[in-house]
Amino acid sequence: MQLSLMALLLSTSCLIPAAAYAQTVSAGEVSASSALSLPGVTTAPSQKKVFKSGNTTRVLNRKLLEAAGPVAGAAQMLSYAPGVQITGYGNTGASKYTVTLNGVQQGWGGFGGFTGDGAIGVTLDGVPVVDPGSDLWQSNMIPQSGMIQSVTTTYGPGNAADRWYNNLAGTIEFTPVQPTAKPGGDINLTYGSYGQKNIEFDLRTGNYHGWSTVIAGGAGDGNSFRKSPDGFQSPSNDYSIYLKTVKNFSAGNFAFGGYFARSAGYRVPVIPTSPIPGVTISGNAGAPLYSQQTSGFYSAPPYNYYEKFDTDALWMVFARENIELDDSTTLHNLTYYENFTRTHSRLYDFGSVGPQRYEYNNPYTNVIGDKLWLTEKLPFNTLNFGGYYIHTLYNSRNNFYNTVLGGNKGVVNAGGKIRSSYFNVDNFAMFLQDDIHPVRALHIIPGIRFVSFQTSYSDSALQDFAFAPGVGLSTHCVLDGSTATSGTTQATDQGSSCGSHVSRNGVEPSISANLQVMPWMALYGSYGEALRTPSVGGGGGLFQKINPTTGYQLELGQYYDIGAKFHVENGRFLHHFVAGVDYFHLRYAKQSLSTQLANGNALFASGSSIYQGVNMFADDNPLYNLYVFGNASFIDAKYQTYITGGTSYGGRHVPYVPSVNFNIGAYYDIPIGSMLLEPRMWYQYTGSQYMFNNNTGAPSNRKMPGYGTLNMSAKLTVPVTLPYVGHKSMDVSLTALNITNNQYNAYEYIGTGGYFNYSGTVPASGFTYAYPGAPFTIYGSVGFHF
C-alpha cells in the first residue's frame, strides 16, 4: 500500500501542464506573507521584533510546523519549540496531549502524575482558550494544523499588557490563517497509515472596499496504531472551522470572527510494560497476559473488555477594535464568548461489575470576557494601560453508575458516585506598562498589574440527577466536616454539600530590557511575578474536598531570565538568520498539587518547586535553497517542598520534565525544470524523565528512558494553469515519521494494578504502565494553491 501510494502521488504530478517556475508554497504561507501589509490582522512577531524583545520568544513558521506531519494538531506542532514536551496516547490532532513548557504543565491527556496544572496561557488569534473554570486547555480543540500559519511561544509571564489569567510559566499563541490584501486559497488532501484521511482548506476574498475575509477549516478521521485482538481499531475523528473578517477605515479597523472545533475518539488505555499475574488482554483465563512483553508492544484490549469514548468541543466568537483617537493615542478592545464542552463515556472497564461500572462525564463551561486598553505613543516611550473582566460558569457533572442497579446517564444507583458542582469564576485585572526607549538600541519595559480572582461554589447534584427508587445521597461539607445521608441506600456525592465563596487579590510587577550591543547581537533579560488560582473541578480538590477558606491561596510564579539574541538579514554566509540562547529560573510557590485517578478520585499535595535551565534556538537560510533549524533545552526541576499524607518528598525531581530536548533539521530546494523538489530530514529527541508513583501519590526516583525519532519528507511543487485564475501551483508530498520504527514509550507511571482490578500481591516497586509512542507512519498529500 505504501509503495503504491507513493507511485500514485508522484505520477499525479506528471498530469499537470508545466508553466513558469513555481516557488514552494504551503497552506498558510501565502496568507502569512500577504497579511503583513493588511492592518487589523493578527501576525506573529517578525525576526526583527523577536530580536529586539526583552523576553524569550520563539516563533514557529509554516516550514517548522510542517515537521509535525500533515495530520498533526496543536500539541504536535508545538513540540518543535525549545523547552516543550508533549505526552499523549494517539498520533493525530484528535488525541488529547499534555504539554509542558520549561517543565510546567498545561492540558489533560487522561493520565496523572503531572503537577502545576494549567499554569501556561494559550491563545487562538489572541483570544484566551484556556478554560478559566478548570484552568485546563485540551490540545484537541485545535486539531487541524493546516489552518495555523504560526505558533508563538513566550517564556515566562511576559509583559503586563500581554498577560491573561494563567501566564505563570509562559504563553502559547496559535495564529490562524488571516485575511489578505489579495484573494486566494489553498486546499490539501492527505491519506496515510492506519487509514488516516484529512482535508484542510482556506479561502481568502482579498481586500474589497476595505473589507477582507478568510474562511478556513479541515476534517480528518482514522484509526489508532494500537492493536486489539477483536480487530477494533479505536477510531477517532475531528473537524474545525474558522472565519474572520477585517474592515479598515480612516480611523483604524475592526475585526470579528468565530471558531468551532470538535474532536472525538476512543481512548486506548495504558499497557503494563511487563506482565501482571492474572491480568490478561481479554479478561479471560488462559488468554495472553496483557503487557508489552507478552501481548505485544502496541496491543490493546478488545472493545467489550475496555471502551472509553471522549469528545471535546469549543465554540468561540470574538470582535476586536483598534481606533486611532488622535495621532498618538489608540483605543483597543477585545470582546469574546466561549463554550467548552466535554463528553466522556465508559461502558466497559476491565471487567468491573460493581455499582460504578459505567461512567458518563459531561462538564461544560461558558465564558464571556472583555479587554479594553489604550496605547499612548510619546517621543521616548510607549504607554499601555487598561484591564479586562472575565466571567465564567463551570459545571463538573459526572455519574459513575450501573444499569443492572437501575442507573443510567442521568439516574443515580446505590453505590454510585456523582458530582454536579457549579463554579462561578470572576477574573479581573488592571495593568500599566511603559516601553522606555531613550535610544534606538535600548528598550526597558517596566509594568505592573493588579489582579483579582473570585470563585463561588455550589453543589446541585441532588437537583441535576434523578435517583433510582430508595436511593439517597451520602454527603459531606468541607467547611465544618459534617456528613449526612438520605434514602435507604446511598450514592456518594463527590462535591461538598455546602456552598462557599473565596476572593483573592494581588499585585504582579514585571520588567524586561533589551540592549542591542551590535547590529547583529542583543543582550536581554526579564523578571516577572504572576499569580493564578489553583485548579478546581474534577474528582475533588478545593471547594469539593478541601476547605477553601483555609486551603485556598493564589499560586505564585517568580521568573527571571537572561540571554543573548542574534539576527542577520543578509550577510555573507547568513540570510534571514535568527538565534537565541537564555538561562531561566522559575520559582513556583504555594502550589496545590493534584493527580486524577481512573476511578474519579484524586490525590492531593501542597508544595513549591524550582525550574531552571537553558533554552536555545536558531533558523537560517545559509544558501538560497537551504533552510536549517535547531531547538534545544536543558532543564532541571525539583520540588523544594512536596507534602502529601503527612510525608515530605522535598528534593525530589518534578516528574515528566526531560533533562534534555532537542530537534534539528534541514530542507533543500532542487529545481527540476519548471518544478521544485524539496527533500527534508529532521530528528527529534526527548531525554529521560522521572516518573510519578500512584502508590505514594508522589514523585519517584525512577526514570523512564529517553527516545528519538528520525523523520523525512519530500515535496514536489508543480506550476499549473487553471481556468479563470491563471498560473498557480500544486504540490505532492510524502511524509514519513519515525522512519527507523523505533519502539518507545511516550509516558510511564507506577501503579498497584488496581487500574486492571488486580487484587494480588503488589511488589514493592509496583507495576509500570505506559503509553507507547507512534511507530513508523507515512502520509501522502496533494495540495493546490491559487
- Could you name the CATH class? Mainly Beta
Straight-line distance between termini: 31 Å
- Summed over residues and divided by their number, the pLDDT gives a mean of 91
The CATH architecture is Beta Barrel
- Describe the global form: globular
**Total helix count?**
7
Provide the gyration radius in Å. Answer: 26 Å
* Coarse structural class: mainly beta
Helix content: under 10%
Structurally, how many domains make up the residues?
1
Content of β-strand: over 45%
Which spans of ≥5 residues are poorly predicted at pLDDT below 50?
A: 1-35
| CATH topology assignment | Maltoporin, Chain A
Biggest β-sheet: count, sense, barrel?
22 strands, antiparallel, barrel
Strand tally = 45
Annotated CATH homologous superfamily: TonB-dependent receptor, beta-barrel domain
Set out the fold topology.
Blueprint: H1 2-13, H2 29-35, H3 47-52, E1 56-60, H4 62-65, H5 74-78, E2 84-88, E3 97-101, E4 104-106, E5 121-124, E6 127-128, E7 148-155, E8 170-176, E9 184-192, E10 196-204, E11 211-222, E12 236-249, E13 252-266, E14 271-272, E15 306-324, E16 329-349, E17 358-361, E18 364-377, E19 381-395, E20 398-401, E21 411-412, E22 417-419, E23 421-436, E24 442-459, H6 461-464, E25 466-467, E26 471-476, E27 483-485, E28 489-493, E29 500-518, E30 521-532, H7 548-551, E31 555-570, E32 575-596, E33 602-623, E34 626-644, E35 647-648, E36 660-668, E37 670-672, E38 675-686, E39 689-693, E40 698-704, E41 707-722, E42 726-737, E43 745-751, E44 767-772, E45 777-785
Parallel strand pairs: 5-8, 21-25, 22-28, 26-28
Antiparallel strand pairs: 1-7, 2-3, 3-4, 5-6, 7-8, 9-10, 9-45, 10-11, 11-12, 12-13, 13-15, 14-44, 15-16, 16-17, 16-18, 17-20, 18-19, 19-23, 20-22, 23-24, 24-29, 26-27, 29-30, 30-31, 31-32, 32-33, 33-34, 34-35, 34-36, 36-38, 37-38, 38-41, 39-40, 41-42, 42-45, 43-44
